[in-house]
Design goal:
Strand order of the largest sheet: 1-2-5
Largest sheet: 3 strands, antiparallel
Distance between the termini: 62 Å
CATH class of the largest domain: Alpha Beta
Number of domains: 3
Strand content: 15-25%
Order of helices and strands: HHHEEHHHHEEHE
Structural class: alpha+beta
Shape: globular
Radius of gyration: 20 Å
Number of strands: 5
CATH superfamily of the largest domain: Elongation factor Ts, dimerisation domain
CATH topology of the largest domain: Tetrahydropterin Synthase, Chain A
CATH architecture of the largest domain: 2-Layer Sandwich
Amino acid sequence: MSIPADQVKQLRQETGAGILACREALEETKGDIEKAASLLRKQGLIKAGMRSERATHDGVLDLYSHGEGRVGVMVEVNCETDFVARTPEFREFAHEMALQIAGAAPSWVDIDDVPEAVLQERRDKIREEASAEKKQKQVIDKIVEGRMRKFFEDSCLLEQAYIRDDSKSVKDLLNETIAKTGENITIRRFVRWTVGEEAE
């Protein structure tokens, strides 16, 4: 099947994948752009997973001030090389993370960063609330699981819905950027300040 150049160009703009990868995906999906984009995303996730163990010692600090200086964010995003750290795709991702943190106010980068004491306290509280509602034990376990998932989606940066497109998570955006740059990328740490808040 012959794929028109404008379709390849459209898919490339949507996904950031290479021309050859876009053409092959369109050929495989018989010219269906939506299916081709989905295929490329899956391939990107696989590649991102393969890169996840590679060390990230380079990168940038992105600083962002919001609401006429009422909210400030500093985030460190790391990659493998200085070359990628200077690319527009990487810089844009780092800035998007600063915007995400300013707008969605996560407390941690990932689920693994949440202290065990916080997790236990949260689970205990949910169990108490469900028990007070006279729920059965097997139902309580499902309630705990569901509410903990919601807690992670609210408080962990990588689990949050991306503020510009809530059909994807921040983790999805990270994996797309890894696929585009060809390097492992990690969000190392961040700080978010609000004027007048108590210092910890």
